[in-house]
Amino acid sequence: MIETDILIIGAGPTGLFTVFEAGLLKLKCHLIDALPQPGGQCSELYPKKPIYDIPGFPEVLAGDLVDNLMEQIKPFQPGFTLGERAEDIDKLEDGTFIVTTNKGTKHHANAVAIAGGLGSFEPRKPQIVGIENYEDRGVAYMIKDPEAYRDKKVVIAGGGDSALDWSIFLANVAQEVTLVHRREEFRGALDSVEKVQELVTQNKINLITPAEVTDVKGTDKVESVTITIHDEAKRFQEIECDAFVPLFGLSPKLGPIANWGLEIEKNAIKVDNTLDYQTNIPGIYAIGDVNTYPGKLKLILCGFHEATLMCQSVYQRMNPNKKYVLKYTTVGGIDGFDGSRK
Ligand code: FAD
């Protein structure tokens, strides 16, 4: 049995930063993640993509952010159960919890922080007959390493942030980037839309709208795609390419956590955002992308904030008679943390 103060389910950016905030309060953490490595979406979906909205970092690659978080929490020596999915939870009479993974590993904790992000996620796939035959042969639903597209001809489909950001990034890596979207308007950030339009005028992105990729062709791998243009004439255009990357987002599935008796709304766990991000079960918190409350934003910095307030609540739960006085990390004297990286 693994013993800890806070058991964190999910080692994404939110779960990792929780270890730091808990560590300042001398609370010990252990993390479980179904993936074999920490970092959540940042490591699994977009390690080489730059992030621009982490305070204090004008630009940081998602993978580097994870490395930095791992470095930041090192002094607090968190435990990890990786490659295992949290499956069952039992609340004991004393208010503590036992969480068991799909491989039978048991964890005993005073509080449980669910930082499960999107849960186990599946990419939304386009309705193209036979597309599965080209998966990993030029068709990919997420970009893990942009270098794989160096000097290649790439067709990206989609109208959200991922499609826009990757088109911008690959414009300087790939030989040719074609962005196909079924509407004239994009859903992504205005700044990214403007950047794409700038690159279109520089002939670095070939933009085709309103249109859809309706067929993929090739012998052993992708060699071309057919694009149906949604104008009055319903024209077709054949584009030669090495890769087709439909970026239509992820369809989130909460997985086993959905059966834990928690209040769920639209695939997310409802929490009390007026206080401490606790769920309807006292002692179980939900932070980061996995939770929902009025005005919720699925951003890394929001997860960091939620983790910080949650740790204060766990401290009060475990030390009901102690008054916690906030100290800054820049001021010496915080027990267990002298700022040095050992
Ligand atoms: P996640 O990163 O999703 O991590 C959750 C972890 O929990 C996963 O590793 C998962 O395996 C694990 N897990 C789930 N269920 C279980 C279980 N039952 N047992 C064990 N493990 C489990 N945000 C920004 O702020 N700025 C950006 O520029 C930005 N760009 C993005 C670009 C893309 C392409 C994508 C997809 C997202 C982007 N985001 C961005 C969103 C950001 O990545 C998320 O807000 C962030 O990852 C949420 O962190 P998290 O720790 O809450 O969850």
TrEMBL record:
Its EC number is 1.18.1.2
User: How are cofactors bound according to the entry's free-text note?
Assistant: Binds 1 FAD per subunit.
Query: What name is this protein filed under?
Result: Ferredoxin--NADP reductase
User: What organism does the UniProt record list as the source?
Assistant: Nonlabens mediterrranea
Instruction: Extract the Gene3D superfamilies matched here.
Output: FAD/NAD(P)-binding domain
Asked if Flavoprotein is a keyword of the record, the answer is yes
**A Pfam family for this UniProt protein?**
Pyr_redox_2
What is its cofactor?
A: FAD
Q: So where does FAD get bound?
A: 14, 33, 41, 46, 86, 121, 289, 330
Q: Which residues does the UniProt record annotate as the domain FAD/NAD(P)-binding?
A: 5-294
Broadest EC class assigned to this enzyme: oxidoreductase
Q: Which UniProt keywords apply?
A: FAD, Flavoprotein, NADP, Oxidoreductase
- Catalytic activity, per the record? 2 reduced [2Fe-2S]-[ferredoxin] + NADP(+) + H(+) = 2 oxidized [2Fe-2S]-[ferredoxin] + NADPH
Q: Which family does it belong to?
A: Belongs to the ferredoxin--NADP reductase type 2 family.
For whether the record's keyword set contains NADP, the answer is yes
Q: How does it assemble?
A: Homodimer.
